[in-house]
Amino acid sequence: MHYKDWVKNEFQKLSQSLGFRYFPGQEIQNRLKRVRDGMKQQGIESLLVIQKMDFYYLSGTTQDGFLFLPLEGKPLLMIKRELERARVESPIHDVVSFKSIRDLPLLIQKHRKKLPRNIGLEFDLLPVRDYFKFQEIFPRITLKDSSSVFREARKIKSTFEIDLIRRAGEIGKKVYEEVREILKEGMTEIELGGLMEAVAKRYGHEGLLRVRSLNYQAYSWHILSGPTGGIVSQSDSPMGGLGLSPAFPVGASLRKMETREPILVDFGICYHGYQADQTRMFSIGRMKKKFIDAYQACCEIHDAALEEVRPGVDCAAIFQKTLRLAKKLGYKDSYLGPPGLQTRFIGHGIGLELNELPFIAQGHSYPLEEGMTVAVEPKIVFPGEGAVGIENTITVTENGYEILTSTEQEIFQV
Amino acid sequence: MHYKDWVKNEFQKLSQSLGFRYFPGQEIQNRLKRVRDGMKQQGIESLLVIQKMDFYYLSGTTQDGFLFLPLEGKPLLMIKRELERARVESPIHDVVSFKSIRDLPLLIQKHRKKLPRNIGLEFDLLPVRDYFKFQEIFPRITLKDSSSVFREARKIKSTFEIDLIRRAGEIGKKVYEEVREILKEGMTEIELGGLMEAVAKRYGHEGLLRVRSLNYQAYSWHILSGPTGGIVSQSDSPMGGLGLSPAFPVGASLRKMETREPILVDFGICYHGYQADQTRMFSIGRMKKKFIDAYQACCEIHDAALEEVRPGVDCAAIFQKTLRLAKKLGYKDSYLGPPGLQTRFIGHGIGLELNELPFIAQGHSYPLEEGMTVAVEPKIVFPGEGAVGIENTITVTENGYEILTSTEQEIFQV
Questions:
Q1: Residue A285: DSSP 8-state
Q2: CB neighbours of residue A102 within 10 Å
Q3: SS3 B13
């Protein structure tokens, strides 16, 4: 059979029978409007969308290519590989193929009659070499930084997006419940992590947690037991764990988990690109009292933070409230990391990437808004001994919040 | 216990007891020399190493920071998080801490007395925004592109590196052997992929396959059965598969595998950052003759390519030889993809990333050299029906090659 015919006739049927949800046209229209509002504010006449998650956000596909978006008029999806699949996946009407980046000016000119005066590019991630190439192929066009247009547009989630995050949270709940049957004394952290991944993937977890960053890659298997919970590493996190080698120095290690120690399981799920992050505590036999107490403190801090969550409340103020409470509860020197290495956030926006706006953090003085989704994660760390914490992904509603990760919050004791 | 004391006293012991292998000082010295030879050729006076795998290659750690490397004199490792761990992991002597990128000029001046006239940066990945920031903090210094210095230095592997890749290959072999016990009729592709990941991680697989690219992420679970083997997607690969959603449109899907169809398992392993890639075929019951024949053709093409492998042989010439053989064997229109979408490579350099030099590919007319490591992967694709292929990671030796992925090559029939 010819490939093109097969994709046209069979691909959509097969993919939808296997659970693919394509973005509705109206969803894309609403997103384009949000992005264009930001373009207008910043005097950006057109965008060339390159970064994969910005591209997916506006087109519904992650096939290899560029999206050209003028302030007014129709967007143009230019695809290198694979055209027919992009046509099925994206509700955008104008989809063309290209071979080399040098074809772009002509394709845009054909679509628009004339080229824009400026083009916005994602300077926060676009490589310098590509920037120079764009200067060469668009010699009379000003290149502007469009990064904040995307960060601002994407910080408020639609009902459609929240539904995908909720679904990711439900997969996470099933995974946590199955851990009870999996966790055994003498098992290594990474063995548990691998088996949790296997369960999660069976339910559709995509196996990666995207981060907007040149160098940092996230992962699901953040499973830390006893002393590895007390290890700080490269990430801006209260504790990174040991990991498997100096090349991957975070998350689960080959350490065998022991009885009565705290086992912290921070396991995010990615469904259709949308993430839900959550942390729960496990123990083999009854966890030592010191850690049970600290976990209860985390839960109290978590609840106190959520009590504040509603549109209009200042993010930095919520963070400060948790600092005061941690101090009052006796955890001033272990809250969010060991002394000198304590992080200064308890919440990060989450969606297609896990470092989206807003941050419930020191210095982040701006209000929460309806439709924001945030992972809230107070944690307490004792170097050499272990770490405890709880984390839920929530969305800000009209009057408060909804928890999208509804796994039970008791310590999972096996 | 104080965190710093714990790392100094306990961290090295714990990590080494759990299998961490740190880079020996001499290994780093040899690498520095290779990189400096390239700097000299390109007139680069100093490097600021940022990209994570270049940074790991030269420092032995992946903690968050920058490496400053002058053409002559001692390198300076500047660490943001976490300093004590970097000191344990890296054999570099001069290790200092910093808080903001604005501290860099002063730290470098302290180390060197005066600033260099130019600094090399990895323009192939460094974000534009960071480039502008460096222009601002180093106003009188020329910023040059250092990408090719790294690509050239890293294309030849040391005995130490080849040993880590061999170890990754051995983990892969164990994983493939255990699949026999796992694969069952009615299981989905991703279920198998998840369980293979679980086995691999238990042996130390780090769960990610790094690629030097802004937008493309690789993954281990490239498991394609019957028709999904015929699907082309975003990647420059003969077949991408269906994947789990438009956000992750490659690799294993939720399709249930059926009897007698070809099941292509392309499963890479990452050990201490170093990758070994391999592909084998599976079937539930006896695979249909059409696919057995095509698989035998792949093996014949694979063997014919390896027959040419030794220092001095032209990469493009090897690729052309395989094209002629595929045509002779009757697979002109299915070799390396469907017509119009055929890729033009059968081998990619592999090490810390899986798109390293060399490429055994059209247009890549340069000689193989001793110490190169390459994944060789002839594949045949029938749209709507399935794909077959074989892949091994090899290293070029003085007179020929060594296969680093010694899994048996018969079809795994369960």
A1: S
A2: 11
A3: helix
Terminus-to-terminus CA distance in chain A, angstroms? 54
Residue A18: φ, ψ to 5°? -105, 20
Q: Which helix (H) or strand (E) holds A202?
A: helix A189-202
Q: Backbone phi, then psi, for B383, in 5-degree steps?
A: -55, 135
Residue A234 main-chain phi, psi, to 5 deg = -55, -30
As a whole number, the mean pLDDT across chain B is 97
* Distance between start and end Cα atoms, chain B: 54
Helices A315-328 and A289-308 cross at an angle (nearest 10°) of 150
Residue A1 has pLDDT above 80, yes or no: no
Q: How far is CA A137 from the centre of its chain?
A: 33
Domains of chain B are: 3-153 (3.40.350.10), 159-413 (3.90.230.10)
Chain A closest CA to B131's CA: distance in Å? Answer: 7
Q: Is the ipTM of this complex over 0.90?
A: yes
Question: How near does any CA of chain B get to the CA of A332, in Å?
Answer: 14
A127 closest CB neighbour out of B125, B216, B384: B125
pLDDT tens column, A25-46: 999 999 999 999 999 999 999 9
CA-to-CA distance for A20 and B54, rounded, in angstroms?
37
Q: What is the pLDDT of residues B365-384, one digit of tens each?
A: 999 999 999 999 999 999 99
Specify whether the CB–CB gap between B246 and A18 falls below 8 A: no
Residue B155, number of CB atoms within 10 A of its CB: 19
- Which pLDDT tens digit goes with each residue over A361-379? 999 999 999 999 999 999 9
| Contact (CB, 8 A) for A27 and B254 | no
Distance from chain centroid for Cα A44: 27
Q: Is B228 helix (H, G, I), strand (E, B) or coil?
A: helix
**Tens digit of each residue's pLDDT (9 = 90 or more) over A45-63:** 999 999 999 999 999 999 9
Q: Extract the tokens encoding A204.
A: 């559709």
> Which pLDDT belongs to residue B117?
96
Closest B-chain CA to A23 = B246
Name the token pair of A106.
């002509």
Q: Got the DSSP string for A371-398?
A: T-EEEE--EEEETTTEEEE-BEEEEE-S
- Residues in A closer than 8 angstroms to B231, CB to CB, are 7, 11, 85
Tokens 């989630």 correspond to A157
pLDDT digits (tens, 9 = 90+) for A273-303: 999 999 999 999 999 999 999 999 999 999 9
CA distances from B35 to B54, B104, B136 (A): 10, 22, 26
Q: What are the beta bridge partners of residue A269?
A: A276
Tell which residue, B216, B12, B46, B268, has the closest CA to residue B142. Answer: B46
Integer Cα distance of B86 and B77 in angstroms = 9
Contact B195, B331 (CB under 8 A): no
Cβ partners under 8 Å of residue A23, min gap 6? A60, A90, A91, A160, B246
β-pair partners for B49 = B67
Give me the residue label for tokens 């509002």: A37
CA-based nearest residue in chain B for residue A56: B247
Residue numbers in A near B21 (CB within 8 A): 245
Q: Return the pLDDT at B113.
A: 85
For residues B303 and A8, what is the distance between their CA atoms, to the nearest angstrom? 37
